[in-house]
Amino acid sequence: MDYETIRKPPVNAHAVRPNLDDYAGTRSAFDYERVIDGLDGLPGGGLNIAHESLDRHVAAGSGDKTCVLWEGKDGRSETYTYADMAKLSNQFANVLRNLGVEKGSRVFVFMDRTPELYAAAFGTLKAGCIIGPLFSAFGPDAIRDRLENSEAAVLVTTPQLKEKVYEVRDDLPALKHLIIADHDASPEVADGELSWNALMADASDEFEIVATDPEDPAVMHYTSGTTGKPKGAVHVHKAVLGHYATGRFALDLHPEDIYWCTADPGWVTGTSYGMFAPFTNGVTSVIYEGGFSARAWYEVIEKYKVTVWYTAPTAIRMLMKAGDDVVKRHDLSTLRFIMSVGEPLNPEAVVWSEETLGLPFHDNWWQTETGSIMIANYAAQDIKPGSMGRPLPGIEPGIIDEEGNVVAPGEEGDLAVRPGWPSMFRTYWKNEELYDSKFRNGWYITGDRARMDEDGYYWFVGRSDDVINTAGHLVGPFEVESALMEHPAVAEAGVIGKPDEVAMEVVKAFVSLKEGYEPTPELRQELTRFARGKLGPGVAPREIDFIDSLPKTRSGKIMRRLLKARELGLEEGDTSTLEDD
Ligand code: ATP
Ligand code: MG
Predict the structure, then answer these.
(1) Residue 518 CA to chain centroid, in angstroms?
(2) DSSP 344-380
(3) Closest atom of ligand 1 relative to the 388 alpha carbon
């Protein structure tokens, strides 16, 4: 699969000079401890993410700048300045103080992307508590697991979502306060519930941020559950150095940008890059409450004149599936820089966006545990479609072998990172043992397999758990999926290793088709031939099944472990983050 390198002109069409235009120079001179020079620190000493995100802009005289352009599900728009967000979060910090919630307590939110969610998150940080966001589509079991494990003392939810909490409330003795918020109206509250509106009305909009140490826990995120039971990764206030620096370098944020991150705060992308990176960099963010539809998303970009857009492969594949006509009906010319994260980005998607949107998607790699982007394609650098790009300033990844030694360029191994960057997780909540197991010879082991080429670009191979061993070859599912995606009939593909007496495993593909294609035996044969031509007979799938849609996590990741369990008739394991069919 040869894709041509996408070359970047010295000056792009939007004439914006990329922040990271001297990659080698910036990397060699970079020191994370000095990033604080571009930030503030708390007036009385200490560091707090909410201060860096909101209050410091107000103190510097930028309180009137638009922080959030909110688009409700029903098409309503509301505008919030940095001063508005600072005040709303002060109020919520006072709410927690008035309730007697102590520093270090876990405060969870379980709600749609309304302004209240953001006020609660920053208010929690200001009060010195730990914010834990839950995705609003979670069911009762997912809610119980996370609130039980974290022993959350406060949960903010909505009249529509609270029933799911009631199904498990008896299992949650640590949960003292259930706050009900409704963006539209003052909610009716039952016994044992508190009204957001009543609490906020009684709370002052001035608050002195609790003195938090850079190493105090700030955010707890459960992983996506793609490979097993979700783990609670704990991040500290010092992570904000990473959010700020990567916002500049990887997102290429400039003060005049209108930025849209499509991720929900229930996932780490939705906090690190849906709140902290854009807010610390003082840009204007679009927050769209609604879910995915190609038309609605293009409308958001057009309506708000989005310049920088951060989304995920699953959404990009759906946009590709929706076709180019719907793109043509919208003016997307304000876009200047677009990015993707969460899963491998098929090279076909990069080429599609170049052709259809006039801009290539820039893939980048990181995970809940790393807290911020580690490897990225940059505004000023050429893109090799299919590659995750090169390491951020201040980040030292390595491809290592089983002993923890770095392998030669071009060789496959475990993707690892040298610990010590600010946003690295400090532990898995109540699971120190698992945390300790993630290190080898001074490296943090990410659980992904990858290669680095001679130019220092990293190439994703697969998750360690997903790599297929067939007749002595190690095959990464991503390579096979990407080859299948090049066929015009294929919308999505998920590839697993199926146990086999002779070959140990054989490659099996599950394929969902684009509209207008029928799952016929002829098409199956054609796809087999097509994949063989691209990959060779040793790597191409031996079996192909057609499937309406692939099982995915709520954050849109293909769950290969579930394809495998279903294929083999095994237990499905933790499915609390599985998307509804
Ligand atoms: P769990 O750890 O519970 O199995 P998860 O690993 O999917 O779930 P996240 O932390 O949300 O949880 O996802 C990080 C993982 O997503 C990475 O380790 C990697 O496997 C995958 N990923 C993220 N970005 C990319 C990318 N650009 N290319 C390839 N894979 C990516
Ligand atoms: Mg993971």
Answers:
(1) 34
(2) ---HHHHHHHHHHTSS-EEEEE--TTT-S--EE--TT
(3) 27
Question: What is the rounded distance in angstroms from the CA atom of residue 531 to the CA atom of residue 54?
Answer: 51
**Residue closest by Cα to atom 12 of ligand 1:** 224
Structure tokens at 436: 């300790």
Q: Are 314 and 556 in contact (CB under 8 A)?
A: yes
Helix (H, G, I), strand (E, B) or coil at 97: helix
| Claim to verify: residue 493 and residue 449 sit in the same structural domain | no
Q: What is the dihedral of CA 420, 282, 313, 562, to 10 degrees?
A: 60
* For ligand 1, atom 28: residue with the closest CA: 344
Whether 545 maps to a domain, the answer reads: yes
pLDDT score recorded for residue 580: 67
d(CA 371, CA 446): 12
Q: What is the pLDDT of residues 162-190, one digit of tens each?
A: 999 999 999 999 999 999 999 988 888 99
Q: Are 136 and 111 in contact (CB under 8 A)?
A: yes
- Show Cβ contacts of residue 383 under 8 Å, excluding neighbours closer than 6 positions: 5, 6, 8, 350, 360, 362, 377, 389
Which residues, at least 6 apart from 461, have a Cβ–Cβ distance to it below 8 Å? 412, 448, 449, 450, 451, 467, 474, 476, 478, 479
Bridge partners (DSSP) listed for residue 537 = none
User: Hunting for tokens 């499905």 — which residue is that?
Assistant: 572
Flag whether the pTM goes above 0.90: yes
Number of domains the chain contains: 2
- End position of a domain, from candidates 408, 432, 464: 464
Q: Is residue 225, in this structure, part of any structural domain at all?
A: no
Structure tokens at 534: 């691209």
Cα–Cα–Cα angle for 563, 564, 569, rounded to 5 degrees = 105
Which domain-ending residue is among 407, 433, 464? Answer: 464
pLDDT in tens, 410-438: 999 999 999 999 999 999 999 999 999 99
* Other CB atoms within 10 Å distance of the CB of residue 8: 16
Cα dist. 446→273, 370, 372 in Å?
A: 20, 9, 13
Query: Does a structural domain hold residue 111?
Result: no
Q: Which residues surround ligand 2, an ion (CB under 5 A)?
A: 223
Please report which confidence band the pLDDT of residue 117 belongs to, taking 50, 70 and 90 as the band edges: very high
Reply yes or no on whether the pLDDT at 489 is more than 70.
yes
* Residue 364 included in any domain: yes
Q: Which of 146, 221, 226 to mutate to test the pocket of ligand 1 (most atoms within 8 A of CB)?
A: 226
What domain range includes position 433?
1-17+56-61+236-464
Can you tell me which atom of ligand 1 is nearest the CA of 230?
3
Supply the pLDDT for residue 14.
77
